[in-house]
Design goal:
Number of domains of chain A: 2
Radius of gyration of chain B: 25 Å
Largest sheet of chain A: 4 strands, antiparallel
Number of helices of chain B: 6
Radius of gyration of chain A: 23 Å
Structural class of chain A: alpha+beta
Strand content of chain B: under 5%
Largest sheet of chain B: none
CATH superfamily of the largest domain in chain A: Ribosomal protein S6/Translation elongation factor EF1B
Order of helices and strands of chain B: HHHHHH
Number of domains of chain B: 2
Distance between the termini of chain A: 69 Å
CATH topology of the largest domain in chain A: Alpha-Beta Plaits
Shape of chain B: globular
Helix content of chain B: 40-55%
Strand order of the largest sheet of chain A: 2-3-1-4
Strand content of chain A: 25-35%
Helix content of chain A: 40-55%
Number of helices of chain A: 4
Distance between the termini of chain B: 81 Å
Oligomer: heterodimer
Number of strands of chain A: 4
CATH class of the largest domain in chain A: Alpha Beta
Largest interface: A-B, 19 and 17 residues
C-alpha cells in the first residue's frame, strides 16, 4: 500500500530563547530552522518575534525569555527534525508545537455557517415580533 | 356528628394549606431556572437574593478561537493559584470549557500561565 506523504499540515512552533540572546544570534537560529524546513519539503508561512516576556515560572533559572513563533507547513517528519534541533540548541529553553490546520478548518466552517445564517436573518426576527404581539 | 365535622374540616384545611405554597412557588420561580439551589428548604433563602443566571462568555460574545497565545482571555478563567476555574463557577458551557482547558494547559507548557499548586 503506497502511502502518500502528508506534507500539508500546518504547525505552530513556539519557542523561548534565553533573554540575553542577541538579535543576530536569534536571526542565525531562525535561518537555520528555515533552511531545515525548506530542505525537507515544507515551507515557513510566517515568523513572529513576540519579544521579551516574563515567564510564569522559572525555566532553567530564567525568569524572562524571548518568545519566537514560527508557522510551518509540512509533515510529521519535519516537525520531528525541528524539535530535535531545538532540543540540541543551547539557548532554546522551551518549545511547544501545536497543529493548527484542523482548528483553522473548524473556525472557517463556523464562519461560513454564520454568514449563511445571516442572510435569511429577517425571517426569524419577524416571527419573534409576531409571538411578542400574541403574548401582548 | 363530631366525626363528620372533623372529617370535613381536616381535608379542607389540608387542601388550602397545600394550594397556597404551590401557587406562590410557581409565581416566584423563574422559568429559566427549573431547579433552584437548596430545594424546598432553601426556598425561603432563595427569595431574599436573586441569583443571576450564569452565561457562557464564549457563546455570548461569539468567541470561537480559544488560543493558547491569548493569555488575557485565558487568565480570566484561571484562579490566582493557577488552577482552572470550574464550570459551575464561571458558567462556561461544556464544549467551550473543554477547549479552554486544553488551551490553558498548552499555555502552561510554554510558560505563559503558571501551573497549579506552585505558589509564586
Amino acid at each position: 500500500m503506497a502511502r502518500t506523504y502528508e506534507v500539508n499540515r500546518v504547525y505552530e512552533l513556539m519557542f523561548i530563547v534565553r533573554p540575553d540572546m542577541v538579535e543576530e544570534e536569534q536571526d542565525k537560529l531562525i535561518s537555520t530552522l528555515e533552511s531545515a524546513v525548506s530542505s525537507s519539503g515544507g515551507k515557513v508561512k510566517s515568523m513572529e518575534r513576540m519579544g521579551k516576556r516574563r515567564l510564569a515560572y522559572t525555566v532553567r533559572r530564567f525568569h524572562d525569555g524571548i518568545y519566537i513563533l514560527l508557522t510551518v507547513e509540512g509533515g510529521g517528519a519535519l516537525i520531528h527534525e525541528l524539535e530535535r534541533r531545538l532540543r540540541v540548541t543551547e539557548p532554546v529553553i522551551k518549545f511547544l508545537t501545536v497543529r493548527i490546520d484542523e482548528e483553522q478548518k473548524r473556525l472557517d466552517k463556523i464562519k461560513k455557517l454564520r454568514e449563511a445564517r445571516r442572510k435569511p436573518a429577517p425571517a426569524p426576527a419577524e416571527t419573534g415580533g409576531e409571538t411578542a404581539a400574541v403574548t401582548a | 356528628m363530631a366525626d363528620e365535622t372533623t372529617a370535613t374540616s381536616a381535608p379542607a384545611g389540608h387542601s388550602s394549606g397545600g394550594d397556597r405554597p404551590s401557587g406562590g412557588d410557581r409565581g416566584e420561580r423563574r422559568p429559566p431556572r427549573p431547579g433552584g439551589p437548596g430545594g424546598p428548604g432553601g426556598r425561603e433563602g432563595g427569595r431574599k437574593y436573586f441569583r443571576r443566571k450564569k452565561v457562557c462568555k464564549f457563546c455570548v460574545e461569539k468567541i470561537e478561537a480559544i488560543n493558547y497565545k491569548d493569555v488575557r482571555l485565558l487568565a480570566q478563567f484561571v484562579a490566582e493559584s493557577g488552577k482552572i476555574v470550574p464550570r459551575r463557577l464561571t458558567g462556561v458551557c461544556t464544549p467551550h470549557q473543554r477547549r479552554l482547558s486544553c488551551a490553558i494547559k498548552q499555555a502552561r507548557n510554554i510558560a505563559l500561565l503558571p501551573f497549579a499548586g506552585r505558589a509564586s
